[in-house]
Amino acid sequence: MSETKPDDILEGTTRRVFRYVYRQHDPVGIHDIQRGLGLSSPSLAHYHVSKLMKAGLLKEESEGYTVNKTVFENMIRFKKTALPLQAAYAVFFLAAVILLLTVMRPNFLFSSYVFGVVVAGAGFVISAFETYKAARAPY
């Protein structure tokens, strides 16, 4: 069996299975997934569920399978998209830098002003990098 790269976990049918389970309010069984997505067999549904469980995106309960909600603790939902929480920090720091460089710019550059711009800029760079890393995670 070939090893699945983390970036390839949520592609194709596996993504469809994850979205189907995610949208359900109650735990779902293999046959529910098969019928709901029109898959050819229960074993195909089980294969994709197993991939998602191995990645930590689904968990098995006594009634069926549910989405592992802890994966989404550090996410912000925007319409139907889940964004990493770090994106909010990046936007905040970027707005701070823009405000400091435009609206709050003094006539003479003081060391405290330069320090503020550098700190806000560093905050933006760090938050943007952490957003990038979180967005590339398999979930």
Folded structure, characterized:
- By secondary structure, this protein is mainly alpha-helical.
- It folds into 2 domains: 6-71, Arc Repressor Mutant, subunit A, CATH 1.10.10; 74-135.
- The protein is 53% helix and 12% strand.
- It has 5 helices and 4 strands; from the N terminus they run αααββββαα.
- It has helices at residues 12-23, 30-37, 42-54, 86-101, 111-135; strands at residues 58-61, 64-67, 75-78, 81-84.
- The strands form 2 sheets. The chain has a two-stranded antiparallel sheet with strand order 1-2.
- Strand 3 (75-78) and strand 4 (81-84) form a beta hairpin.
- It is rod-shaped.
One letter per element, helices H and strands E, the order comes to HHHEEEEHH
Question: Based on the structure given, which CATH architecture of the largest domain is correct?
Answer: Orthogonal Bundle
Q: Bin the strand percentage.
A: 5-15%
Q: What's the arrangement of strands in the largest beta sheet?
A: 1-2
Q: For the terminal residues, how far apart are their CA atoms?
A: 22 Å
Low-confidence stretches: 1-7
Number of strands: 4
Whole-number count of domains: 2
CATH H level, superfamily name of the largest domain: Winged helix-like DNA-binding domain superfamily/Winged helix DNA-binding domain
The helix tally amounts to 5
Q: C-alpha Rg, in Å?
A: 22 Å
Helix content: 40-55%
Q: Pairing-aware structural class of the strands and helices?
A: mainly alpha
Based on Cα principal axes, name the global outline.
rod-shaped
